[in-house]
Fold this protein.
Amino acid sequence: MKAAQTPKPISDSLRVAAKDKWGWQWDNLESPARPVGITPFFGRVKPWCIPSVEAVRPPVPPAPGSVAFNVAAEELKEIGKGLSNEQRKIANFWADGPSTYTPPGHWNRFACNEIVGYKLSPIRAARVLAYMNMAIMDAGISCWDTKYYYHYARPIQAIEGFKTILGTPNFPAYTSGHSTFSAAAATVLGHFFPAEAAKFDNWAREAGESRIYGGIHFRFDSEMGNTQGKACGGYTIDVAKADGGE
């Protein structure tokens, strides 16, 4: 983890590699722009349960200007024209930016609520929290690998004149961290609390939707992040099933 935040030459090399391979790159549009995005090498941190980042890396996102891209871009424009109070509420609820307990913190809160509700023993509670957070960590590692591998632009860069209601994060778009973290956590919690699985899945989908409402992500960022997170959660459950504690 100590090497996850890279110096500018390494960060620049990742951007150049993406431009050469895919024909696009993410640019920091903050003012003033920071020279390096957040943790370009976080994808190289050793994971807990996934065999490798490549095992859960999503396919290439839609090229800017393609039909799939244009559909997603038009959706964001339409949402931006008439954002409802409910959509704004969801976007703000899940925003979890700096100085908050962050999206993983939301899921630890949800997990603790279930632990109390189901009256789990301290050992069972620790097991739930351990596996859920292992899955979230793997989701973060795999998501950040994807972000800097594809180096995909955010809507504010890719759509002329587009504005967000939540600012713009200092790292590439694809895939959505909120979606990936949340799907991983929901998958693991659904294993430990099967009667609540549908509720967890709904929350994970809402977390992904919140970033679309906020103008932070295209729908394909969120949908593929959800798939990626579920895969991370699945690998974590496989480890849990083999530990003798089931």
About this structure: The longest helix spans residues 122-150. The mean pLDDT is 96. The chain is about 60% helix and 0% strand. The two ends are 31 Å apart (CA to CA).
